[in-house]
Specification:
Length: about 1000
């Protein structure tokens, strides 16, 4: 009994001692940038699962902590700080700027510090992507990463963008990078539809060391997207932002004639018109009444609205972290029959089941509804409004001219304008908007991206993870051709059609990662993993005709039907992979990776392939002999890597002999062999060498200098077959090419004080592309409209060299294949010009200037030495079209008499469109993005008691473009441009509130 009493007393005193050991700690958290209190910062006791506090509107907190405890202070956008607990603490948090200590996600396994990665990796913060007034997120990346080229070829609201990392590594296979969202592969469509305000960061992997772990999908580089998430112990934060803007056409450098100029030009073409009484009466009539239609203004009328609204709530308790966000975006196209609406909903959850089990799910739902301008995919169609804006006659009016008698201009009057015209008699075509009105169509796209995972940490350093990802895409287009009641002969009965496609990809990934140290000097990370992927694509379309009433919009109302179309394809992939990272004393780093991939895309003899890479890094500044330089040389890292990756970006079943259905014969369907088998078909392989110098000097300037050499072998190319085989071509592994280049990124914090901050970052890339081998060692052949030739770059223009206009007789002059001048042209004179639409030089400049709460952000981007065929000029600088169509004002400088020096040949000259006459320098520099924002001071917000942050901003996109290109826009990812939907310029105003 006595022993029990003594035990009780001992426990009592122990409990009292433990209670007395708890200390009440209080303090204030402020920002280093402006000294203002930080509202909603999280203060936690290191090692504690329960103790935590959140700063109030004055930045103050109070917390119970054991004596000698460490406190961890975190806030979104600020660097985490750990300090020893004391009373009346004053804690200052710094902005979380990018540095070598930044933690980034590079692939499978846990995140790593940027300064410990031996590969070529660059990260873009989600902050730089926010509030962009454009639908596709890739557009915001343009100019931000050295070696990454992004081109938005169209200003259509639903348009996508193309991306290339360090050149073109393939010809017929995919050249797009691999996209990863929260650990799972996603399609390009899913990537482009992500709401930029949902992104925490993007990481671009460029060399083999960083990409080889993804094996057969990573030859074109990898873009890893990490979405925003809540944090455990984080106070709830509600953010709401809204902006409204207007869009207009960026530019059109082709000036076309007005009515007076066009009629004068007709006299240049046919001088006898000067003596024609009727023509002179016509000319006088249009001049007297000022009748002249500016078709650019008609089709690209004024400015169109853009609206964006985003809302989110994020936070977390002891065992649950969450983020819920919603985004709404609408945009009207600069052409009236194009528009888009997008809705996005994201839910990210993560829960601690117990101290060693964590589960989570990242869910994203996107819905897009849009309408594309009709005939935009047919560049020279008279109903393509972009093309028609240049070519429609200025004499043609949109409405009836009252008082005009075309057969008697001399006695005609002008009584104003009447009804809108259905048919343009002068132009000989229907009103494009009238045609579009009776052909309504729209498209819907539903995207679902899910990633669910479980993490097990049974022992220290071991992390076992299993994840399931779903990328789901439903696409549907509805078409109608209604009865034209005001012109019954055009479309007497209605038709309706539907097309539908569904794509889904399931990805299951299992990894085990183990981290351990030896003697606190040797740091090891080992990772082993397995991944399986299955995908399926299915599509069908149907059309019903002979519908008798426009109110009956369903196909079931049709009196006849077209034969429906139906397609289906499937793909499977299995992979095993491993990774080894070694770090000696934070000075010497070794990264190794290997992956074994098997894919159903390839032939039975070559379905499996192995890829791998090795990288070394030396942190020179950690060496003792560098001690004297540490006052100014803050970081210096030397990196070198080599490895292989693969490309499997081809359609399914290319390795198989296929049977396809053909047209009806005598009312019965038939089949025929559609594809020749190739059981040896396998991956393209890209082997990459990379060397880099990365560091920081004077604690103010950062630099990243890199050289790379990428060699593609076993290139997936469409091999031309002899027509006697019954096939025109088939896929095979032939050909080689290389991409070699260098790039740099230099950043400078020019001003860094409490109230002032000015940062500039410049990046540039030079890439040299050459084809080194083709089929059967042939020197050249043509593929997809491009000529491929050994020793030349992919995309080199192949045509006749135009040498100007002979001032003696006004004839066009070309060079034959031997370089001799000639005035008669032939296709046999075509040569490789070493001028490509793929820019060898690209770069960007980003700058941020802030003063107290006012901040200016600007982003310039540029591409240089790229060439583009301006095919629009073929139609507006050509007298063969001039009697019906409008022409460029340059045609008024057409050669008239001996001695005239001009680039416009005489009307009697031969004209030829496959020459360098219309090949233009499409290099450009563009002010891609500029934002002026003001953050309301915390001293004012504290009086509200609930508003944590408030910002107002004005945004401009594509405000300035500097180029010598004479077409609508130089940012077209093709070797030529004709009738392309012009890119757009946006100006937006908005506000953002945080609670």
């Amino acid at each position: 009994m006595e022993k029990r009493i003594m035990t009780f007393i001992a426990c009592l005193f122990l409990s009292i001692g433990m209670a007395l050991a708890q200390t009440h700690v209080s303090g204030q958290v402020t920002s280093a940038e402006d000294g203002e209190p930080i509202i909603g910062a999280t203060v936690k006791v290191v090692g504690s699962k329960t103790a935590g506090a959140v700063t109030d509107i004055n930045g103050n907190f109070s917390i119970n902590a054991p004596a000698g405890a460490q406190l961890e202070i975190t806030y979104v956008g600020m660097e985490k700080k750990t300090v020893k607990a004391s009373n009346n603490m004053k804690i200052v948090l710094n902005n979380d700027n990018q540095s070598l200590g930044e933690v980034v996600v590079t692939g499978y396994g846990s995140a790593r510090k940027l300064g410990t990665i031996a590969g070529s990796v660059e990260t873009v913060s989600g902050k730089t992507l926010q509030n962009r007034p454009v639908a596709n997120v890739a557009d915001a990346l343009q100019g931000q990463v050295a070696g990454l080229q992004v081109l938005t070829s169209s200003g259509e609201p639903s348009s996508t963008a193309s991306m290339r990392i360090r050149g073109v590594t393939s010809i017929n296979a995919s050249t797009e990078p691999l996209y990863i969202l929260d650990g799972s592969e996603i399609s390009q469509n899913t990537f482009l539809s992500i709401n930029p305000n949902d992104i925490e960061s993007m990481t671009v992997l460029k060399d083999a060391s960083s990409t080889a772990i993804y094996g057969s999908r990573a030859a074109n580089g990898v873009v890893i997207v990490t979405s925003k998430k809540g944090k455990f112990g984080e106070a709830p934060t509600v953010s709401i932002s809204a902006q409204y803007g207007i869009s207009s056409m960026v530019q059109s450098n082709i000036d076309v004639m007005n009515s007076e100029q066009w009629l004068n030009f007709q006299e240049m073409l046919d001088p006898s018109l000067k003596e024609s009484a009727n023509f002179q009466a016509e000319k006088a009539y249009y001049k007297k009444y000022g009748i002249s239609t500016d078709w650019k203004k008609e089709f690209f009328k004024g400015s169109k609205p853009t609206t964006q609204i985003d809302a989110s709530v994020r936070g977390g308790g002891q065992n649950l972290a969450y983020l819920l966000s919603y985004g709404h975006y609408t945009s009207e196209g600069v052409l009236d029959d194009s528009n888009m609406r997008r809705e996005t909903l994201r839910l990210n959850l993560e829960a601690n089941v117990n101290p060693w089990i964590k589960v989570g799910v990242n869910s994203n739902l996107g819905f897009t509804k849009y309408r594309e301008s009709l005939w935009q995919d047919t560049g020279n169609s008279v109903y393509n409004k972009t093309h028609a804006a240049l070519c429609l006659s200025p004499l043609q009016t949109t409405h009836e001219v009252l008082g005009l008698n075309p057969s008697d201009y001399a006695n005609s009057t002008f009584e104003g304008y009447g009804d809108e015209l259905t048919y343009y008699s002068i132009a000989g075509q229907y009103n494009p908007y009238w045609l579009a009105a009776w052909q309504p169509r729209h498209s819907d796209r539903l995207r679902i991206n899910e990633n669910a995972y479980i993490n097990l940490t049974p022992i220290k350093g071991l992390n076992i993870r299993s994840a399931v990802g779903l990328d789901f895409n439903d696409f549907r287009t509805s078409y109608q051709w209604t009865i034209t009641k005001d012109a019954p002969t055009v479309n007497p009965t209605a038709s309706a059609a539907e097309s539908f496609s569904r794509f889904y990809r399931w990805t299951v990934t299992n990894t085990a990662e183990y981290k351990f140290d030896i003697a606190r000097l040797h740091h090891f990370t080992l990772l082993a993993g397995q991944e399986s992927m299955t995908s399926k694509t299915q599509a069908f379309n149907a059309q019903a005709n002979d519908i008798q009433d426009n109110r009956l919009i369903l196909m079931s109302a049709g009196g006849s039907a077209e034969i429906p179309g139906h397609s289906k394809s499937e793909e499977a992939r299995n992979s095993w992979f491993g990774m080894f990272n070694y770090n000696l004393a934070d000075k010497y780093f070794l990264d190794l990776s290997i992956r074994r991939d098997g894919s159903s895309l390839f032939g039975a003899d070559n379905r499996w392939a192995t890829f791998g890479a090795a990288a070394l890094m030396w942190d020179v500044t950690k060496e003792q002999f560098m001690a004297p330089t540490r006052s100014w040389l803050n970081d210096l890292q030397v990196k070198v890597s080599y490895g292989s990756t693969g490309n499997s970006g081809i359609a399914a079943y290319q390795a198989l002999g296929l049977v396809g259905s053909g047209p009806l014969y005598n009312g019965v369907s038939g089949t025929a062999v559609a594809n020749a088998a190739n059981p040896s078909l396998t991956w393209e392989t890209v082997k990459t060498f990379n060397v880099a110098l990365v560091g920081k000097v004077f604690n103010r300037f950062t630099y990243d200098l890199e050289y790379y050499n990428k060699t593609t072998s076993n290139m997936l190319l469409a091999i031309p077959y002899s027509m006697t085989t019954g096939f025109s071509s088939g896929f095979g592994n032939i050909g080689e090419m290389y991409n070699r280049g260098f790039e740099f990124t230099i950043g400078a914090d020019i001003i860094k004080t409490k109230d002032f901050f000015w940062n500039v970052k410049v990046n540039a890339n030079y890439n040299k592309n050459r084809i080194t081998k083709l089929i059967n060692n042939a020197d050249s052949y043509e593929s997809d409209g491009l000529r491929l030739e050994v020793g030349h770059a992919y995309g080199d223009y192949y045509g006749v060299i135009w040498d100007g206009v002979d001032p003696r007789d006004g004839q066009n002059v070309w060079l034959d294949a031997n370089g001799n001048k000639t005035k008669t042209v032939s296709d046999s004179y075509r040569v490789m010009t070493r001028k490509s639409f793929i820019a060898p030089w690209s770069g960007g400049l980003l700058t941020t200037f802030s003063w107290k709460g006012l901040q200016l952000d600007a982003q310039f981007t540029g591409m240089f030495k790229r060439w583009l065929i301006n095919a629009d000029r073929w139609f507006v600088e050509n007298p063969n079209f001039a009697t019906k169509s409008n022409q460029s004002v340059e045609m008024l400088k057409m050669w008239q008499k001996p001695g005239d020096v001009t680039r416009i040949a005489a009307a009697s000259s031969q004209f030829y469109n496959n020459s360098t006459q219309f090949l233009e320098n499409a290099s450009f520099v563009r002010l891609k993005f500029v934002q002026l924002s003001y953050n309301v001071p915390q001293s004012l917000l504290r009086h509200t008691g609930f508003i944590k942050g408030a910002k107002v901003f004005a945004i401009g996109r594509n405000l300035l473009t500097f180029t010598d290109y004479n077409g609508y826009d130089p940012e077209v990812d093709s070797n030529g441009s004709q009738g392309a939907y012009p890119n757009t310029r946006q100006i937006s105003f908005g506000a953002e509130l945080t609670f």
